User: Which sequence fits this backbone?
């Protein structure tokens, strides 16, 4: 928090430190929403510019990273909405993206089951855009349904439906045997 | 009324995290191994999703430097903006003189020489 206070006072050294510790996460968030490295870099730039300008208004009632994620996801979603639709995940860009995201190995749940991070990234890559944004914001970055609804400009009910359908599609892709459905 | 597996599986994506589950869902889960397995899959999925925040991509090389430079760029832009605001009248007069000059030159060029 001290770092944020120094940034608010215009300390550029503190800003540099803040960028160092957050920019990978923010870039990855934008990349997960936009699926395009150039667009993600552009959205990251815009998000930090907005954050710098709005920093004085940051009251500290949320964690700084949560606030920054909110600014970044809002920027990425606006960009996604305004750009011409490009079908990237069907042309192998998804795999290119997977190569960029550090292989985190597998994650082990409380139940002891393992899901390979790369399998999950691959499943996310083929999830339709409207489900992917909702699931990523809710389940990866912890935004509330209310915030997601606001950012996607949809009702809270619609946001819930997108999150739940997205989860179901991901689960069906990762555990096809349990549903008997083809992936 | 006893819920069917199909009905329970429809509500599991909400039940797993957001707590949208009735007593009859919990009752069904306590008796049905297959639906409990399905719930475990959702729990694994959510655990894996929440761990993804830590798995980051490498940003383009120039991005970091460009982000660090934002305060300087922003203040340069502010300086230009305030300079223009402070000298608005001078810039407006200059622009008016320039436009008048361009228009005058255009009129002068369009005049055809009078031939005898």
Assistant:
């Amino acid at each position: 928090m001290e770092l944020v206070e120094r940034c608010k006072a215009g300390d550029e050294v503190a800003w540099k430190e803040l960028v160092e510790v957050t920019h990978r996460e923010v870039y990855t968030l934008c990349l997960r929403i936009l699926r395009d490295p150039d667009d993600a870099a552009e959205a990251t730039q815009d998000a930090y510019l907005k954050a710098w300008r709005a920093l004085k208004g940051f009251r500290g009632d949320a964690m700084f990273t949560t606030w920054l994620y909110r600014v970044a996801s809002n920027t990425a979603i606006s960009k996604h909405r305004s750009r011409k639709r490009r079908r990237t995940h069907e042309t192998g860009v998804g795999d290119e993206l997977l190569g960029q995201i550090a292989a985190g190995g597998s994650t082990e749940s409380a139940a002891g089951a393992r899901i390979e991070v790369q399998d999950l990234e691959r499943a996310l890559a083929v999830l339709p855009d409207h489900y992917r944004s909702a699931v990523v914001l809710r389940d990866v970055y912890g935004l509330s349904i209310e915030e997601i609804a606001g950012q996607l400009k949809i009702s809270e009910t619609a946001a819930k439906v997108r999150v739940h359908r997205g989860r179901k599609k991901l689960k069906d892709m990762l555990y096809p045997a349990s549903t008997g459905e083809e992936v | 009324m006893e819920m069917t597996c199909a009905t329970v599986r429809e509500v599991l994506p909400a039940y797993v995290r957001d707590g949208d589950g009735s007593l009859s869902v919990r009752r069904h889960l306590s008796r049905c191994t297959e639906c409990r397995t399905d719930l475990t899959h959702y729990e694994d999925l959510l655990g894996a999703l929440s761990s993804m925040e830590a798995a980051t991509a490498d940003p383009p090389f120039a991005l970091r430097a460009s982000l660090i430079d934002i305060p300087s760029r922003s203040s340069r832009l502010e300086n230009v903006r305030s300079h223009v605001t402070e000298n608005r009248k001078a810039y407006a007069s200059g622009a008016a003189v320039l436009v008048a000059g361009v228009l005058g030159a255009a009129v002068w060029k369009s005049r055809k020489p009078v031939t005898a």
In short: The CA atoms of residues 95 and 150 of chain A lie 31 Å apart. Confidence is low (pLDDT under 50) at residues 88-93 of chain A. Chain A touches chain B through 54 residues (CB under 8 Å). Chain A is about 70% helix and 5% strand.
